[in-house]
Write a structure and sequence with these properties.
Endonuclease, Chain A, 7-stranded mixed β-sheet, MITD1_N, alpha+beta, MITD1_C, 9 strands, elongated, MIT_dom_sf, 2 domains, disordered C terminus, 6 helices, Methane Monooxygenase Hydroxylase, Chain G, domain 1, 240 residues, single chain
Length: 240
């Protein structure tokens, strides 16, 4: 527990409050286990005093983070390294998809077939939609802003998006699709105030080695391209 708390203090001093809070919470849990296993009353008392101090600081950090959210100043950055695994959509978005989320905006110019790269970006969007349907949020409306596929791929893109739209409607979710030739930003917004910007959009996974290779179905096991994820919290989520 001592090393974890030491790391929490270092992150705290560096003003990396979100990471610091996680370490404080882990450290407190470990110290509580130590207290239970200790028979020396003097040591117990010292541990309890330290736990009290760390709990007070953790509460102060929580309040600070909450104020940043309310002021629209919250910002968290996640760096996904080249070939890193464990960054499936559920892992990346779960803490922001609270039960009150009912509306989602997706801006990504490449929700289409890119034949040259053999990537099925439409399947990425479909998997993202599946995550929303599974909850715990109660999404009723998804807004997609993307660009048209070029040339002969357009009809295939339209057919696929229409199929996704129809399938979502079976789950009580309405998909609104709009197209823009000038869109270049990639961002995802939830109506609880969270905004997530991924450098590569939803397409940060590497192509699987084969259709029967580990990671083909489970994105948590799929190696990633290097990218940066920026998470913001705003008072009011802007609409398209």
């Amino acid at each position: 527990g001592a090393e974890t708390v030491k790391r929490a203090v270092q992150l705290d001093v560096a003003c990396r409050f979100q990471e610091s809070l996680v370490c404080y919470q882990e450290g407190i849990d470990l110290l509580l286990q130590v207290v239970k296993a200790t028979t020396d009353e003097a040591k117990k008392q010292r541990y309890r005093q330290k736990i009290k101090e760390y709990m007070t600081r953790a509460e102060d950090i929580k309040k600070h983070i909450e104020k940043e959210k309310q002021d629209g100043k919250y910002h968290k950055q996640i760096r996904i390294e080249e070939n890193a695994t464990g960054f499936g959509y559920e892992k990346l978005f779960h803490e922001y998809l609270t039960e009150i989320v009912s509306e989602v905006w997706v801006e990504d110019p490449y929700i289409r077939q890119v034949h040259q790269a053999s990537r099925h970006l439409l399947y990425n969007f479909l998997r993202f939609c599946e995550m929303l349907v599974k909850g715990p949020c109660k999404v009723k409306t998804i807004h997609l802003l993307t660009s048209y596929d070029e040339g002969s791929g357009r009809s295939q893109q339209m057919t696929a998006l229409e199929e996704i739209k129809q399938s979502l409607s079976n789950y009580g979710v309405t998909l609104h699709i709009d197209f823009s030739s000038s869109i270049h930003d990639r961002e995802i917004r939830f109506n609880n105030g969270w905004m997530i910007k991924i450098g590569r959009g939803l397409d940060y996974f590497k192509k699987p080695q084969g259709r029967f290779s580990i990671g083909y179905c489970d994105f948590d096991l799929r190696p990633c391209h290097e990218t940066t994820v920026d998470v913001f919290h705003t008072k009011h989520t802007k609409k398209m």
